[in-house]
UniProtKB/TrEMBL annotation:
Biased composition (Acidic residues): 31-40
Protein name per Swiss-Prot or TrEMBL: YtxH domain-containing protein
Biased composition (Basic and acidic residues): 42-74
Disordered, as annotated region: 25-74
């Protein structure tokens, strides 16, 4: 009886500690599927992040081009304004010189006539 009892205990211990190959294979397959799903998700997230970064870079480039165009237009407006002011100033100086020459000529004539 003692041998039967010890044999039963020994069989129970083996049954508890040993797992079947099917269970191990099933757990390995499940772990492999989880790893594959995780890697797929990571790949999709990386792809989405790259797409988003590309869109952001494109938007930034478009905004930079628009800012450059605006800056160019404003620069051209400033240049046109400076040219107009320079022309106006030159005309004013020319008129002032003509008036001064005319006044000098008139004064010289008056003195010559006296």
């Amino acid at each position: 009886m003692k041998k039967v009892f010890l044999s039963t205990v020994l069989l129970a211990a083996f049954a508890i500690t040993l797992t079947s190959c099917r269970d191990t294979k099933k757990k390995t397959d499940e772990a492999g599927e989880q790893i594959e799903e995780t890697l797929d998700e990571a790949g999709n997230k990386a792809e989405d992040a790259l797409d988003t970064a590309g869109e952001k870079a494109e938007d930034a480039w478009d905004e930079t081009k628009e800012a450059a165009d605006t800056l160019k237009e404003k620069g051209e407006e400033v240049i046109d304004s400076v040219k107009a002011k320079a022309k106006e100033t030159a005309e004013d100086v020319d008129k002032a010189v003509d008036d001064a020459v005319k006044k000098t000529v008139d004064e010289t004539k008056e003195k010559a006539e006296q």
